[in-house]
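step 3/5: co-fold with 3'-deoxy-guanosine-5'-triphosphate
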Amino acid sequence: MSRILVVDDHEDNVELLRARLEARGYDVDCAMDGQEALDKVRATPPDLILLDVMMPRIDGIEVTRQIKGDSSLPFIPIIMQTALETTEDKVEGLDAGADDYITKPINFAELEARVKSLLRIKELQDELARANEALLKASQTDGLTGLDNRRHIEERLCEMYVHATRLNEPLGCVMCDVDHFKSVNDTYGHQAGDAVLRQVAEILKDSAREIDRVGRYGGEEFIVLLPNANIDDARAFAERVRQAVEAREFTYDGGSLRRTLSAGAAAWPHPEIRHQEGLVKAADDALYEAKQHGRNRVEV
Ligand code: GH3
Ligand code: MG
Ligand code: MG
Ligand code: MG
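step 4/5: write tokens
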């Protein structure tokens, strides 16, 4: 059922429209002035607004401007109600972003037709917004593990690094790489390799806090960004992950297998880390050390 917000400073108008629209099966809410309308729209965006222009304090033009200028709101069609003789109101209203207008006294058959037409457009707009959101999500997500993909985690890193350095809060970074992963593929098949990667991703997710970001950086390489974590916290995190992987019985279609993981931890502030790439490089260098020193270990 579509929700319509009727806004008018005259109670008679409001009640008449409410009765007519409710009789047509719409879910109707009312506001008696511009501020009340804005509050209601922000609390629960309706599917359409029937908006009076002439109202004390915040008039319909201003309400329209504020709603249409608020990018956090979905598309909400606005039909302005104007007096017949005021062409300027109509122009101003449409300029402010109103989608349509209807003249008073209101012809209800005409109003109903305009409401229906705008609700069809609203439905299409919502569909478009959903499709856009799904596309955006897909462009940020790694298909195999559901983690942030490399491009997206690098965007996050940029934001987190700026935030950390501005507020002088530490920022931890951990790079992990599954040990001898190639042999999983070679011995058990690529499907088993994929299954292991998904489970390593799960371990990383489960070990991370809500504010941490976990990304798939390369084939069997993962990165974790840890806001407000210093080098000791980052090392402790990496060590927890290392132990969880070591203890894990990885399952795949046909059996189970064990594997270990090496990790490198780094954190800002550090005298040699002057930009975000430097933070990743420090973690990567530490990971390289971990591999050199025999794998299944954490280095900083
Ligand atoms: P190391 O301990 O030095 O890290 O050895 P490794 O075998 O883990 O490292 P190497 O870089 O030699 O091999 C990584 C392998 O990961 C090679 C590649 O085929 C495999 N790989 C990369 N992406 C995927 C994936 O999405 N699925 C599967 N199953 N394998 C992948
Ligand atoms: Mg009025
Ligand atoms: Mg590896
Ligand atoms: Mg690797």
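step 5/5: annotate
Residues 177-179, 181, 220 surround magnesium ion (ligand 3) (CB under 6 Å).
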